[in-house]
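Query structure, 173 C-alpha cells:
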C-alpha cells in the first residue's frame, strides 16, 4: 500500500485482492470455467485497452468468480472488460493503483493443454477447454488467439499505469 505505485492482481490474486481491499466476495461455479473466451472492453477509452480489437480473447481456468453487480456497487472500482461466457475480466480502482484480472493473458500456448492432460491422466472428470483445440479435438495443437492482446495488455499497463505515473520519490506514493 505504501511502496508500490500500481499493482496487477491476476486470477486468484484478483479475487483475493478484491476481497481484501473492497470486500468483494467470490462465488463458486457449478463447473470449472476452462478455455479461451471472447471479451469486450466496456471502457474502450481506457489506456489499458488502447489498440485492442473490439473482441479479444483470454484464457481462463477457475472454479470461482466475482460478479459484476458487486463491483458496480463500489464507486471506488471501475469495471473495464467482461466476457459473456467468463464474466468479469478487468477491474481497476478509481485511483489507477490496483488492477484485477480474472483470466490468464500470460498463459503459454500449451498451458491449458498441460492442465487438461494432467487432469485426464489423474482420472478427473474434466471438460475439454472451450475454444482452445480446433474442433474441440485434444489431438490437435491448440489455437492461440490471445497472444497479441496479452502483449498489448501488459505493455499498456506498464506504460500508462507504471512508467508514466510512478513518482520519482517513493515518499510521494
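Result returned for the query:
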Amino acid at each position: 500500500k505504501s511502496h508500490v505505485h500500481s499493482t496487477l492482481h491476476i486470477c486468484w490474486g484478483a479475487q483475493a485482492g478484491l476481497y481484501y481491499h473492497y470486500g468483494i466476495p467470490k462465488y463458486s461455479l457449478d463447473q470449472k470455467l476452462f478455455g479461451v473466451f471472447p471479451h469486450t472492453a466496456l471502457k474502450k477509452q481506457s489506456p489499458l485497452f488502447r489498440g485492442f480489437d473490439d473482441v479479444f480473447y483470454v484464457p481462463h481456468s477457475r472454479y470461482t468468480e466475482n460478479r459484476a453487480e458487486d463491483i458496480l456497487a463500489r464507486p471506488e472500482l471501475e469495471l473495464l472488460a467482461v466476457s459473456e461466457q467468463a464474466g468479469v475480466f478487468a477491474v481497476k480502482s478509481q485511483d489507477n493503483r490496483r488492477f484485477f484480472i480474472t483470466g490468464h493473458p500470460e498463459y503459454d500456448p500449451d498451458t491449458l493443454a498441460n492442465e487438461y492432460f494432467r487432469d485426464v491422466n489423474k482420472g478427473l472428470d474434466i471438460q475439454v477447454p472451450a475454444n482452445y483445440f480446433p474442433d474441440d479435438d485434444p489431438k490437435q495443437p491448440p489455437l492461440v488467439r490471445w497472444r497479441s492482446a496479452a502483449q498489448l495488455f501488459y505493455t499498456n499497463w506498464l506504460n500508462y499505469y507504471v512508467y508514466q505515473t510512478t513518482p520519482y520519490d517513493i515518499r510521494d506514493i
